[in-house]
């Protein structure tokens, strides 16, 4: 149980470090309304791109520890399904790691727009979109598939989770946060650029809460 809890805390650290890194990489007061052709990067200081890059790269490997925590919380219910969730989680953050590692580079390219001829500049952006931005779309699909297996494993019973935790799978949390961010732009402009990290911060917090609840219940019995 101690190892499971430690791994969960490492997952929390990952969501904080990568979230902070992504915030440095993406946020500026002009982020809303400048999404076309990565224009928002123009308003992000170059120093922030560097800081954000290294924070995200340092924090990202800890996400794997977080998913081992999830696996250990699920495996008593169904080992095969738990391993499936673990494998998909590793795939998700391998893909996510490749993507986030590219953001400082595309940000610097945007800053160099006036020093690059228009045709070359657009070719660079198109290449980035087709090779890197597509990974975000893939990541969302992977997280959706992971969420299905996560919920099914919990609903089958026998895990360390109460069955209500199935509702709080990653894709459900993500969708809820998107809705909140769209309804309240003053919150959304800060939250949406780091959405996957906010999602996993909530996921790991709830998971650790359930682990603590389970331990108390076992102690009382």
What does this structure look like?
With 221 residues, the protein is mainly alpha-helical. Helices cover 76% and strands 0% of the residues. The longest helix is centred in the middle third of the chain and has 38 residues, at 118-155.
In summary, what is this structure?
This protein has nine helices and no strands. With 221 residues, it is mainly α.
Helices, strands, pairings?
Blueprint: H1 2-26, H2 46-59, H3 62-74, H4 79-100, H5 103-111, H6 118-155, H7 170-183, H8 185-191, H9 195-220
Helix pairs in contact: 1-2, 1-3, 1-9, 2-5, 3-4, 4-6, 7-8, 7-9
The structure class reads mainly alpha
Gyration radius over CA: 19 Å
* Percent helix range: over 70%
Percent of residues in beta strands: under 5%
Element order, helices and strands?
HHHHHHHHH
Largest sheet: none
Mean pLDDT: 93
Query: How many runs of DSSP E, i.e. beta strands?
Result: 0
The total count of helices amounts to: 9
The N- and C-terminal alpha carbons lie at a distance of 17 Å
Globular, elongated, flat, extended or rod-shaped: what is the shape? elongated
Q: Low-confidence runs (pLDDT<50, min 5 residues)?
A: none
Top keywords for this entry?
221 residues; mainly alpha
């Amino acid at each position: 149980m101690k190892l499971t809890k430690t791994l969960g805390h490492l997952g929390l650290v990952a969501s904080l470090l990568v979230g902070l890194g992504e915030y440095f990489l993406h946020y500026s007061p002009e982020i809303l309304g400048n999404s076309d052709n990565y224009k928002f990067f123009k308003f992000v200081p170059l120093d922030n791109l560097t800081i954000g890059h290294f924070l995200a790269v340092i924090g990202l490997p800890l996400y794997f520890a977080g998913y081992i925590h999830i696996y250990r919380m699920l495996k008593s219910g169904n080992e095969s399904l738990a391993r499936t969730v673990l494998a998909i989680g590793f795939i998700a953050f391998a893909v996510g790691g490749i993507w986030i590692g590219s953001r400082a580079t595309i940000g610097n390219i945007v800053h160099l727009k006036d020093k690059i001829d228009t045709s070359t500049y657009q070719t660079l952006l198109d290449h980035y979109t087709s090779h890197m931005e597509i990974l975000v779309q893939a990541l969302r699909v992977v997280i959706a598939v992971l969420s299905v297996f996560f919920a099914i494993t919990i609903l089958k019973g026998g895990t360390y989770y109460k069955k209500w935790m199935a509702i709080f799978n990653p894709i459900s949390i993500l969708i809820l946060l998107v809705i909140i961010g769209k309804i309240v732009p003053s919150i959304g402009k800060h939250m949406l650029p780091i959405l996957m990290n906010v999602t996993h911060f909530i996921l790991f917090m709830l998971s650790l809460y359930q682990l603590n609840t389970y331990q108390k219940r076992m102690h009382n019995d």
